[in-house]
Amino acid sequence: MRINTWNGQWLSHYYDPREYDADMPLAGYSPYNTNKDGIINIDTQTWTKILIAVSKKYRNAQILGYIYSIGKTNKTIGFIPFDLTQIRRPIHLYEKIFGMSNGRNVESLWGTAIGFKTACTYGAIGIKAMEPKGLRDYVYKGKQPKAHNYDNINY
To answer: Any alpha helices (H) in 15-153, and if so which ranges?
Structure first.
């Protein structure tokens, strides 16, 4: 087991108000799953999911994080500011429009256009770092989403 995988799972659980209960911190916490060969493992959490959860806990905060990676080779990126208000706003808007229970559905959309290391090169982690993959195709190139059969209404 990798310690960063465990830490990511715990941070995701701890900062999720829908799951974490301070009176019973381990209630609902089950980071383990079984793969097709029957081997128990722990999946790595995405950095965007952890940031979304942290932004929900500290709604109007700007924090400074020290970014590093420990592995076969240790890498240091340095101190990076996080603007949690920019991360929180789009999630809050989605939950307001589509309902709080659907908030988890949108979490998988954020931050897939670039990796965390690239996001750190922007100088700060905010809305630009959380850009969904493929968004630029629709916004800047004018590409239209594909129509699905369930979008067609027969009169």
So the answer is: 47-57, 84-98, 103-107, 116-120, 135-139
Q: By the 8 A CB rule, do 77 and 117 touch?
A: yes
pLDDT digits (tens, 9 = 90+) for 28-67: 888 888 888 888 888 888 888 888 888 888 877 889 999 8
Total Cβ atoms within 10 A of residue 126: 18
Pseudo-torsion of CA 89, 61, 127, 125, nearest 10°?
Answer: -160
pTM: 0.72
* 103-142 pLDDT per residue, tens: 566 666 666 678 888 888 888 998 888 887 777 777 777 6
CB atoms within 10 A of CB 93: 11
Element (H, E) at 21: none
